[in-house]
Amino acid sequence: MTRKNVLLIVVDQWRADFVPHLLRARGQEPFLKTPNLDRLCAEGVTFANHVTACVPCGPARASLLTGLYLMNHRAVQNTVPLDQRHFNLGKALRAIGYDPALIGYTTTTPDPRSTAKQDPRFLVLGDLMDGFRSVGAFEPNMDGYFGWVAQNGFALPPNREDIWLPEGEDAVPGATERPARIPKELSDSSFFTERALTYLKGRAGRPFFLHLGYYRPHPPFVAPAPYHGMYRPQDMPAPIRADSPEAEGAQHPLIKYYVDAISRGSFFHGAEGSGATLDEAEIRQMRATYCGLISEIDDCLGQVFAYLDETGQWDDTLVVFTSDHGEQLGDHHLLGKIGFHDESFRIPLVIKDPQGAAGRRGAIEEAFTESVDVMPTILDWLGGEAPRACDGHSVMPFTQGIRPTDWRTELHYEYDFRDVHYSEPEKVLGLGMDESSLCVVQDENYKYVHFAALPPLFFDLRSDPNQFVNLAEDESYAALVRDYAQKALSWRLTHADRTLTHFRSSPRGLEERNPNATETGDQSWSAPSRVAAQ
Question: Which of 12, 22, 277, 518 has the fewest CB atoms within 10 Å of its CB?
Fold first, then answer.
């Protein structure tokens, strides 16, 4: 069998409405330029209704790489360990003969039962997920990147993250038109690209799987020259938000907490004050810088694509482009990836399948897809098999122009907002640790947000697409609120952990049922060919 290549590109904090191909499809003029991503979209399928299963980074990447919903993998926040029993894409690839190389990071904290409490991985935000082999790590502590910068002759300041401060000693921290102090040749995006090209050239044409991660457009929102000045603030879309932070926070206790708690310093090194008080000019400047960081990644991807072209590998490579989560960017008076808003959860997904139907090239697919679908999609293309516990489904049929008859009819995602080292919502909201969570069920018409111990939210997306009017207590919507609450409950019941639920003991010994069987009785049971460690 001919071995195939896979390039999985995972960027950080890139929201879906900053994909020019999607903007054009909706009749909007793009406000940023990404010619290399445009090429990928033109040769593949772009999924217009794609969400991450959860936020922030660690939980999102756990779902992306295990194919599990947050309610099943339970790495609920950055720094919370991932149970070692969970299968993941790296381990699955090894099982079919691939050496899964990873550039970037996964923000995975190890299972404390598998190591000692003195393990230095517990001193950092996260480390690399078991099963992958790092060929260009950013974690822990970004040592690999900063060492590369120093090795290339750049004198690091005592606080090495100051390279992301705006240029000039008189620079005022915050949204700025000034470039970063680090040149583009030594940016983290350039580092990841150099690592990718080094790895690919070392493969010398042999089949590969490469997880190529990029840190951007994650904050700090300061871009190296010339990307800092590539876009004009006045050309950026205006923020979508209530008239004031107070009006925004009045919608729900969780939003009020974040409006009150988010600081500028988490997004602009050295900045002070509340993130909710950014004025429109500052938000437009932040968005211009965000677009500059996106264009830098696009240029970097162009280098990788060009190498695959030159070596004749482009047409043998499945390319998957996605992000871990989105970014509020001032919408709803918020910054970061939090809560339940679309800006935090809607992300890009583009798949270039060299075996896909010619008529699907450049297609926009409106079906509802989720980050848990990425793992089974890649395994499907490589001839592997997703584990029974996987919550996602392969989207490969869509690249052939086929919509599965049983495809999901709603989007689902979750957020766990328990205390972590930089946030204390439980104390303010009067909640216990295991009460600090929400889940969302959303389709083209309605969006329902269920909280474990706070009031629900319900939005009519046809009349209120930006979700300002909560109808959960409106008697005329009571039946719909009930129906969507039942959808949420049914979703959780049908996706409860099922790792072993298709096995049984019997007088004939261990038997396995085909999970896709529709018949009843013993005819659907058989002796398992193997019992994988999944």
Answer: 518
